[in-house]
Amino acid sequence: MNRFILPVAVFLGLAALLYIGVRHSPGKNDMPSALIGKPAPAFELPVLGETSRKFSTHEFAGKPWVLNVWGTWCVACREEHEDLMKIAAQKRVPIVGLSYKDDDAAATDWLNQLGNPYTVVAVDKEGRTAINFGVYGAPETFLIDAAGLVQYRLAGPMTPEIWQREFLSRIGGGGPR
Amino acid sequence: MMRSWKPAAHGAWLALLLAAGALAVDTTVLPDPKLQERYEALTHELRCMQCMNNNIADSPVGLASDLRRDVQEQLLAGKSDDEIRASMVRRYGNVILFTPPVKDPSSFWVWLLPALAALGGLLIGVRVVRQRARLVAQDDSPVDAEEPRR
Fold it and tell me: What ipTM, to 2 d.p.?
């Protein structure tokens, strides 16, 4: 009997380890961002539809804001659009759109047809700014606090529940209700 | 027999190599062969975050080509391999490295567990062999006595 104890123990140990591994394996969508608690990368990019104007992250220095990475080629972005419109209507924080590797005309059409939830849309044609934010797909939404630090990153479509739970709770008091 | 087999195998390898060449995603050529070598090494050890189990050299998605461009630009700007790796980790975390750092608490177990498992296996193996050896040493019955009954 004794000689079975070790193999059985090893087997059970391995089984438990693999079970935990499978149950807790992070999906692609919940990998933690490396930027949490770090300064949001500063950028200056052309504004969609306004060729002469550039948007700079300095414009929001000292107040919290949200960066939403989107593209008209991205199905999940279409999915979250209505919720973004509702969130924008609350006017809690400015939402900056990052038009990620997209065609400007297509992006403009999309906003004209579906409504524009963004305070301003910055155009990241080559995806350089997105890389600096560690973006690996769209949509992704970042919450940047008044100190310019990234407080939260959502990979995947926004929902009212996530907005309430993860974003509003971190923005806290202040700002119009 | 060997003669007819070998050329066939060579042919197969050649076909595979040609196929690999035809499928190569990345055809970037840097001006300096030294840089080219480092470029290829780096792009093979960075994970394409969109298609988790591919490296950025082999992945055809847009993000991988953006990251390749980034590696290329940093190389041309004179950055060291470590600086380039660090810049990737700063943006994407250790996940982007196929060989995460040993000393980091988040990836320490990735390195330690296989070594522990191998050591455990070895100990069990040694134990089993020793036990068997003892069994044989204790067994005085003549081997031949069993044979006729089979």
Answer: 0.80
